[in-house]
């Protein structure tokens, strides 16, 4: 599922870049810019649906990836596991900010509820919430900040993913037997590359 997550990240980044060309990060025109993408931009409906459904597919693959890691005991490789946890937090933050961008009722109240959870933090909670909002209420500054961070985070995720892979190659993937042996290994190609290609094909067909 790691390779599928990589494909998801590439799809999300490419479709996101195309959407960003037409999106307007302003509370008065954000929703209408989404409508414009759907109705007027050539294949805009397809790009937007790929981006929205791709986010759901991303989380399906993430939870399966985590489940596999827990089942095979991959958490014993602490560096790889901890970086994976950091990646999960970044992906969740990116998805939440993306949810806010259409600026419908669900977006506004979603942003209100989730950001207000931070106010429960002792001493700094209220100040932190106001800093995230960019004022004393959710307004244009909040939407602009969320759009900027939503645009930046995927590139940060890509960088952290490289570190995740670097640590993975140091230790190797875990297996059902829980053994770490160099004597009984198979080459990546064709055994895994064909499986990855088939998985990618199924995922793309599901998204389309």
Automatic annotation (TrEMBL):
Residues 178-208 form the Cytochrome b/b6 C-terminal region profile domain. Residues 1-177 form the Cytochrome b/b6 N-terminal region profile domain. The chain crosses the membrane at residues 50-71, 83-102, 108-134, 146-168. GO terms for molecular function: metal ion binding; oxidoreductase activity; quinol-cytochrome-c reductase activity. It holds the Pfam family Cytochrome_B. One of its GO terms (biological process) is mitochondrial electron transport, ubiquinol to cytochrome c. Keywords: Electron transport, Heme, Iron, Membrane, Metal-binding, Mitochondrion, Mitochondrion inner membrane, Respiratory chain, Transmembrane, Transmembrane helix, Transport, Ubiquinone. It is a multi-pass membrane protein. GO terms for cellular component: mitochondrial inner membrane. It is found in: Mitochondrion inner membrane. Its main location: mitochondrion. The cytochrome bc1 complex contains 3 respiratory subunits (MT-CYB, CYC1 and UQCRFS1), 2 core proteins (UQCRC1 and UQCRC2) and probably 6 low-molecular weight proteins. PANTHER family: CYTOCHROME B. Component of the ubiquinol-cytochrome c reductase complex (complex III or cytochrome b-c1 complex) that is part of the mitochondrial respiratory chain. The b-c1 complex mediates electron transfer from ubiquinol to cytochrome c. Contributes to the generation of a proton gradient across the mitochondrial membrane that is then used for ATP synthesis. This is Cytochrome b.
């Amino acid at each position: 599922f790691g390779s599928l997550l990589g494909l998801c990240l590439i799809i999300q980044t490419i479709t996101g870049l195309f959407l960003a060309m037409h999106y307007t990060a302003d509370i008065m025109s954000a929703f209408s810019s989404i409508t414009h993408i759907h109705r007027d931009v050539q294949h805009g409906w397809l790009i937007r649906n790929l981006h929205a459904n791709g986010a759901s597919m991303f989380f399906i693959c993430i939870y399966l990836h985590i489940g596999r890691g827990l089942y095979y005991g991959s958490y014993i490789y602490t560096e790889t596991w901890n970086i994976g946890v950091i990646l999960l937090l970044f992906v969740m933050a990116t998805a939440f900010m993306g949810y806010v961008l259409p600026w419908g009722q669900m977006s506004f109240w979603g942003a209100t509820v989730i950001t207000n959870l931070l106010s429960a933090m002792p001493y700094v909670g209220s100040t932190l919430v106001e800093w995230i909002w960019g004022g004393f209420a959710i307004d244009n500054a909040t939407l602009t900040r969320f759009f900027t961070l939503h645009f930046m985070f995927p590139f940060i995720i890509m960088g952290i993913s490289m570190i995740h892979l670097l640590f993975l190659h140091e230790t190797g993937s875990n297996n059902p037997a829980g053994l770490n042996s160099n004597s009984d290994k198979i080459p990546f190609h064709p055994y895994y590359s064909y499986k990855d290609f088939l998985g990618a094909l199924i995922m793309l067909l599901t998204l389309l």
